[in-house]
Write a structure and sequence with these properties.
The complex is a heterodimer. Chain A is α+β, with helices and mostly antiparallel strands. In chain A, 48% of the residues lie in helices and 11% in strands. Mean pLDDT of chain A is 78; it is low at 1-69 and 718-741. Classes of the chains: A alpha+beta, B alpha+beta. Chains A and B meet through helix 14 of A and helix 9 of B.
Chain lengths: 741, 719
């Protein structure tokens, strides 16, 4: 407590410049309450003592003192209170499924029911949602089929409450981060206010979405990183370790929710590299000590997050042990882990025989089942014959019959086994077409040949014949179900059946392309295994498929996720947006942010040119500039890292992808506006400037509040007519024609 | 007074001269062989032909300068543009001077060698390493192949190198000399030329601007220079490196647009206003139409969307089927579609809903923004109508139909509000060609829109037109332009049909400014997306480094003589090694300098850094962007990046020689090694010569022996 009062009033003794002293004389009688004044005199000497020994921290304290008398915890409480109340207000409304809740709510239910599913994001966010649902008494029975479904008696508030609760921390974190970097309550307050009253930010926190959870971890990581940076003068002390470990934990949290977390990892990584670079240049530091620093960071910022991240996946796999909708995305070995899957404790004929009905699974990770359906290749794409694709879901169109070269009627007597080197014909069970290839270009991979379904009821031509090869086998070896890697070589052209992994356009139902590759190199894409095998004439034998290693599961699920992510290509008529729409697409707060971004760049350019030309400025102003360049630089970098990469992404982009960048932008706004306020005395004599600062501050707050007042019906659910109908209350709020309420 | 004797002293770098001669010899000998269309000549050739015929075209592969350089060669050779560029390998007729078509790229390719020499010298390295670098450039088979045909890469490479060379020259020149700004001006010019040939030049331009701003930053920090002087220098640099290139870039387009004034195959991509400014085509049809659309006007409405195909609002005597294949029902009213051909059924009449007559009154009453109209189909007398029935192919949108009141259960909903989108730029009045108009359905406030899908057989595979709730702002598929227009005079249906069949014709010339044309062309070039299917020889950037790919450029129709784009494997390997070595060396130096240990003197360090900025930077900016590009890429895209690595190899060797090795014996060994590598380069150049020059013909076995990588596609004739 003592120390805190010191920080508040040490400027009385500490200041050397005349201007500051003047400022003080204006300030004290008006601003400081009388009892504080007394304290300050009392504590004067106590304050001086530590300050002289720690020059750096002294400066920092002095800087913080330039602001309003900081009832620091009071302000923080105010921010927290406002933040929680705006987010939790009307949390149960609307009582039906909104937007992406249909996905994430459903996935929460999957965790509660322990059924396996597949999603393009890592599991932590959905795990937390599931946990919150579980704790609040939700039983996982609500189907979440489509947006607009009524929740009825189901307990959905727990899941929404978790998201809103975590979302409420964002302004608090923003406040603390900005305060830590700028030591200015004004800046911190501006940043926090922007976030508290930003309707977009409120909206995104109020529903069952991954974004509030993701942003919570991002901001927490930045906060702990900033705190850690402040500890740099006390290396290897307890707080130093604490903040570093906390940074690592939050990083793994961010990455565990969405891969967007990679950007904050990049931010922290860059920060760490520059920190290490500084340490390396410090010639007083022994090389051994430097190595200690390096190792500490490797442990806390690389090994620990990796360990935690892997742990999250371990929990994910342990929780989800029942077969569910996501099975088909994974390999046969993976599926055998899942209770209820037909490969779990599977029992089927051991060796492939003629007359069997089989499914073929491509061995490439996230490779699909060989599939065909009643649709032809369109005009201009090779021959106009039936499509053959690879399909990730289990489906009766994945079934194929194995026939001998010539006879269609191979069902007599005990079936013969198919052996390495045999020539076979594969007939699609549903459409009775034969698997066929010929010298036409494949639809996407132009270097390969097209694969089609050809013929009718088993009659076809010589291009329907394929030679079976077991990888690593010799002529005459039988083909083992599940365990043999099989290649199918086209007899006429010598090419090999291949799954390219490219997604076909709309005419191919966005399934995966299957080709015949003339390059015979053994790759996983050209190897298949027999997954289902039905032959009533053969005895079923229980197969214990090799259970995969945890590491294999982990790698496999990542590759499947990455494939899934890049496969999310925009479809027609879908609400998608382009990155350059984002910063301008919303309301007052966002425009203010954008304007401040431009302003910030100009300010930095001016100050750095001034420094480069060696313009002499007062110590105080120099420090303000450093705050602008260092602190602001961090936020600007964060904004860049969370925004620019989206330009290079081919996947579907939504407006909510901009929110993490917007957080950084708001904090940057806080610092920029604060800097402007402090620079006001360049233009005006002191007393006016003081007042101008106040007016300016109040003005900004009012603008933010007014915009909140205008837009709040959007946030808390609309009542009344839709906006495009004239006379509605929303018509005047619809400022830009492109908004879609 | 004339002083005698009059003396001119000239110093000639004989090595440089010899190198240039060699370069010209390798790039220019037997230039007209093969006398057939080679690879992308088939692509560039069609544009050259269009230049010869002055026909307007648009090409998204790059701005106009490159095409114009090729066209200049053709023009000088007397090419008349009459050649069908339809197939790789097609023989040129003797009327085409193949030599002149290929001359400019070849000359540019040859000039790259001496310019590379100069860059190394300007970087402060010795003439020996300059010689080494230019030998690597000289004997790179891929560079030779790419230079010898009517392609643009060699031109881009030359301009990029020239820009760097001139900038370095400027930087190295003494501050006092006034000539140095000429060098900077030249640098800016080369940059804009490089961008003008291919957009990838932008990457090198950015690098150069980056290096220049670094130097300028140092200048700003130099306290010995006065503030005014710094300011003047900054302004000069700004003018030379920003203003001049931008102006020149616009100038290329000015020349391009003033050369091409006839209408042609790409007219349809452009706005009607643009088309009307071209000779022939639309301007012939629309010449002298009335400007303002009035009640009673007969119009054709063209969709502003040029994707998937430009088309006109159309209706015909066929109804929507009662039930679609999916089992959904329709209104069973007359179809309204978008039809990509001129047709009498594209004519609509703008009708005032309050009046019954269909002729233009006198004076004509113009239609303004916000007015309510009906659109009357001229040939079938149906009104354009929309209602709450799902559209055939896009069920989320409303069906649009042709309505006539047969007293069935469905009421007419045929009122449309005219929404002039560009009213601020043009005017409130609906104008022919100039106004972009949204037609908003009054009852449902949906917007008439081209959905982009085509109808099945019952709709004659024409484009579907729907009415959709407006969202996501402006979209070109929602706006329509009046293209053909006349004031209707006939009241009787019979007369009207005759009138609709007759062509429109009155004489006035309509012009749009150069800037409007420039902006439109530029915008179209950046947004036109060509179909992006994989090409047989396309490859990924990683395959370029590992040399896993080649491109077959040409195969003799009967023998095995063929030309391939394959680099010199030895020099490409050396290039990769030197890239790796630079990075290793740089990181070791950096770490050790940070700890206060200086391995090399400061001057050498400066030189090493600037080598990295130019050569490694050049490689990075010309390579890394391709990794993120989402289109089909070819091996030749790597060549600009590769050139920088060749420069790097030689310079790095010299650095190692002078600064890393201290003992004479070591240096001698290094020199010997360098000579040996050079000999290997020469040897492999010689080995691959037959695939570079297309002669002599090789046997199948010899070809097989040259297939150093399994993934190379070397062609054989089946005998």
């Amino acid at each position: 407590m003592e120390n805190k009062q010191c920080t508040a009033h040490s400027y009385i003794t500490g200041d050397t410049t005349i201007r500051n002293r003047k400022l003080q004389t204006f300030k004290t009688p008006r601003a400081a309450p009388p009892n504080d004044k007394k304290d300050s005199h009392l504590s004067k000497d106590d304050c001086l003592q530590p300050d002289e020994t720690h020059g750096e921290s002294y400066h920092r304290r002095r800087r913080s003192s330039n602001d309003e008398p900081p009832s620091r915890s009071g302000l923080l409480l105010l921010v927290a209170g406002l933040s929680f109340s705006t987010r939790l207000y009307k949390i149960k409304e609307p009582p039906h499924v909104c937007w992406d809740e249909t996905h994430f709510g459903k996935m929460g239910s999957y965790y509660i029911n322990r059924t396996f599913f597949f999603d393009v994001h890592p599991p932590l966010g959905k795990l937390l949602i599931g946990l919150a649902g579980y704790m609040s008494g939700y039983d996982g029975t609500f189907p979440f089929t489509k947006p607009g479904d009524n929740y009825e008696h189901h307990n959905y508030w727990g899941m929404r409450g978790l998201c809103a609760g975590l979302g409420s921390f964002l302004p608090i974190f923003a406040y603390l981060i900005v305060l830590e970097l700028s030591h200015s309550h004004t800046a911190a307050l501006i940043a926090a206010t922007l976030l508290i009253f930003d309707t977009g930010c409120i909206t995104i926190s109020q529903y069952i979405l991954l974004d509030p959870i993701l942003m919570f971890f991002i901001m927490a990581a930045v906060l702990s990183m900033v705190k850690f940076n402040q500890q740099q003068h006390r290396p290897f002390s307890a707080p130093w370790w604490f903040w570093m470990v906390l940074t690592g934990v939050n990083l793994s949290g961010a990455l565990g929710v969405k891969f967007v977390g990679l950007f904050v990892i990049l931010l922290v990584g860059l920060n760490t590299v520059s920190d290490l670079w500084r340490l390396l240049g410090d010639l007083d530091l022994m090389l051994v000590d430097f190595v200690k620093h390096l190792l500490a960071r490797v442990v806390a910022l690389i090994l620990l997050p990796v360990f935690l991240y892997v742990t999250i996946f371990a929990i994910h796999f342990v929780v989800l042990n029942k077969s569910g909708p996501g099975d088909g995305f994974f390999s046969s070995a993976f599926q055998s882990r899942l209770i209820g899957n037909n490969l779990h404790n599977a029992s089927m004929p051991e060796y492939l025989a003629y007359g069997s009905t089989i499914t073929l699974k491509n061995l490439r990770i996230a490779g699909g089942y060989l599939h065909s359906h009643w649709h032809l290749y369109p005009e201009g794409v090779g021959a106009k014959q039936q499509q053959v694709t690879a399909y990730l879901h289990k489906d009766y169109n994945n079934l194929w019959l194995v026939h001998r070269q010539n006879d269609t009627n191979s069902q007599r007597g005990a079936p013969d086994l198919v052996r390495h080197g045999d020539i076979i014909r594969l007939e699609h069970k549903e459409t009775t077409r034969n698997l066929h290839s010929h010298l036409h270009e494949a639809p996407l991979t132009k270097k390969h040949f097209q694969v089609t379904g050809y013929g009718m009821n088993g009659t076809g031509d010589n291009n329907d014949l394929w030679r079976v090869e077991v990888c690593g086998g010799r002529t005459g070896d039988p083909v083992k179900v599940l365990r043999s890697k099989v290649r199918f070589l086209h007899k006429a052209t010598g090419c090999v059946l291949f799954s390219s992994g490219k997604t076909l356009p709309k005419w191919g139902w966005e399934q995966v392309e299957v080709t015949c590759s003339p390059y015979l190199k053994e790759t996983l894409s050209s190897q298949w295994n027999i997954e289902d095998h039905i032959n009533p004439k053969l005895p079923n034998i229980s197969l214990s498929v090799l259970k995969p290693h945890f590491l294999e599961i982990l790698i496999e699920s990542h590759i499947v996720m990455i494939r899934g992510n890049s496969g999310l290509k925009p479809k027609d008529n879908e609400v998608t947006s382009k990155p350059w729409h984002w910063p301008i697409n919303y309301q007052v707060v966002w425009w203010l942010n954008l304007a401040c971004l431009g302003l910030y760049l100009i300010l930095v350019a001016v100050t750095s040119v001034a420094f480069q030309r060696g313009v002499s400025v007062s110590q105080r102003r120099r420090e303000h500039c450093f705050v602008l360049m260092r602190g602001g630089g961090l936020f600007f970098l964060g904004w860049l890292l969370h925004y620019i990469p989206f330009y290079t992404m081919g996947r579907v982009l939504y407006f909510h992808h901009y929110f993490p960048a917007m957080l950084f932008n708001s904090m940057l706004t806080g610092i920029t506006l604060d800097f402007l306020l402090k620079m006001a005395d360049l233009l005006l004599p002191l007393p006016f400037c003081e007042q101008l600062q106040r007016v300016w501050m109040v003005f900004i707050l009012l603008v933010i509040l007014y915009s909140f007042y205008l837009f709040h019906p959007l946030t808390y659910g609309m009542t009344g007519p839709l906006a495009h109908e004239p006379g509605s209350s929303m018509a005047r709020v619809k400022w830009m024609e492109s908004w879609d309420f | 007074m004339l002083q005698l004797p009059l003396v001119v002293t000239a110093r000639v770098d004989l090595v440089l001269l010899l190198l240039s001669l060699l370069a010209f010899w390798t790039r220019l000998t037997r230039l007209s062989y093969p006398n057939a269309v080679v690879f992308d000549e088939v692509y560039y050739g069609q544009f050259v032909s269009l230049y010869m015929k002055r026909i307007f075209f648009i090409d998204d592969s790059g701005p106009a300068l490159g095409h114009m350089i090729l066209a200049l060669g053709a023009y000088l050779g007397g090419f008349d543009g009459n050649f069908m560029w339809n197939r790789i390998g097609a023989e040129y007729p003797c009327s085409v001077s193949v030599w002149s078509l290929r001359l400019f790229p070849a000359v540019c390719g040859a000039l790259c060698v001496p310019v590379g020499y100069c860059v190394i010298v300007e970087l402060g390295f010795s003439h020996v390493s300059a010689l080494g670098a230019s030998l690597l450039l000289l004997f790179d088979n891929a560079l030779i192949v790419q230079s010898r045909f009517m392609l643009l890469e060699s031109v881009v490479i030359l301009f990029i190198m020239l820009a760097l060379f001139t900038y370095l020259r400027f930087h190295n020149a003494p501050t006092s000399s006034p000539v140095r700004y000429c060098w900077l001006l030249l640098s800016g010019t080369s940059c804009s030329a490089a961008i003008g040939v291919k957009y990838m030049g932008v990457f090198s331009y950015l690098l150069l601007v980056g290096v220049a701003s670094l130097h300028t930053w140092k200048l700003i920090g130099d306290m010995t220079v006065s503030g005014l002087c710094v300011f003047v220098q900054c302004v000069c640099r700004g003018v030379c490196l920003f203003v001049v290139p931008v102006l020149l870039y616009v100038f290329w387009f000015y020349v391009h647009l003033s050369l091409l004034h006839r209408s042609g195959p790409h007219d349809q991509l452009m706005s009607p206003a643009f088309q009307a400014s071209l000779e022939g085509g639309l301007s012939r049809i629309t010449l002298g139409q009335p400007l303002e659309v009035a009640y009673g006007s007969q119009v054709t409405l063209r969709s502003s969307a040029s994707q998937p195909i430009p088309c006109w609002l159309h209706s015909h005597k066929a109804n929507y089927p009662i039930r679609y294949e999916s089992g959904r029902g329709s209104s069973h009213q007359q179809q309204v579609t978008c039809y990509p051909f001129k047709d009498v059924n594209n004519w609509w009449i703008v009708k005032n809903p309050d009046r019954a007559d269909l002729a233009v009154g006198s004076p004509p009453r113009a239609v303004r923004h916000g007015d309510i109209i009906q659109l009357f189909h001229g040939m079938t007398s149906r009104f354009l109508n929309s209602h709450d029935v799902a559209a055939p192919m896009s069920p989320h949108a409303q069906e649009v139909s042709g309505y006539i009141d047969f007293n069935v259960s469905m009421p007419a909903q045929n009122l449309w509000r005219v929404d002039v989108v560009n009213r601020e730029a043009e005017s409130e009045v609906w104008k022919t060609i100039l106004s972009e108009v949204r037609l908003v359905h009054v009852n449902t406030s949906a917007v008439l829109k081209l959905s982009g899908t085509s109808l099945p057989d019952w709709g004659f595979r024409q484009m579907e037109v729907v009415a959709e709730k407006m969202f996501r702002g402006h979209s070109s598929s929602q706006t329509w332009t009046v293209e053909e227009h006349r004031y209707g005079t006939s009241e009787e249906q019979k007369d009207r049909e005759a009138e609709l069949h007759s062509p429109t014709h009155i004489d006035v010339n309509r012009k749009i400014s150069f800037w409007a044309k420039f902006l439109e062309v530029q915008w179209r070039m950046l947004t036109v997306k060509q179909e992006d299917s994989e090409h047989k020889y396309s490859s990924t950037p990683l395959e370029w480094i590992t040399m896993e790919t080649n491109i077959a450029y040409w195969l003799h129709p009967s023998t095995n003589a063929q030309i391939h784009l394959i680099g010199n494997p030895v020099s490409w390997g050396v290039a990769n090694l030197s890239l790796l070595a630079y990075h290793l060396l740089a990181s070791v130096y950096l770490l050790r300098r940070r700890r206060g240990i200086k391995d090399v003197p400061d001057a050498a360090w400066e030189q090493f850094v600037s080598l990295g900025q130019v050569c490694v930077g050049g490689w990075l900016v010309n390579f890394v962007p391709f990794v993120f590009m989402d289109k089909s890429l070819f091996l030749y895209h790597y060549l600009p990046a590769l050139v920088f690595l060749h420069l790097l190899s030689a310079a790095l060797l010299e650095h190692a020689h002078t600064h890393l090795l201290s003992k004479d014996t070591h240096r001698r060994v290094l020199r010997a090694c360098a000579c040996a590598v050079l000999a290997c380069v020469l040897l492999s150049y010689h080995l691959f010569c037959p695939l570079t020059f297309g002669s002599p013909e090789l046997s199948a076995n010899q070809l097989q022996a040259l297939k150093w990588r399994n993934s190379w596609d070397i062609l054989y004739h089946r005998r």
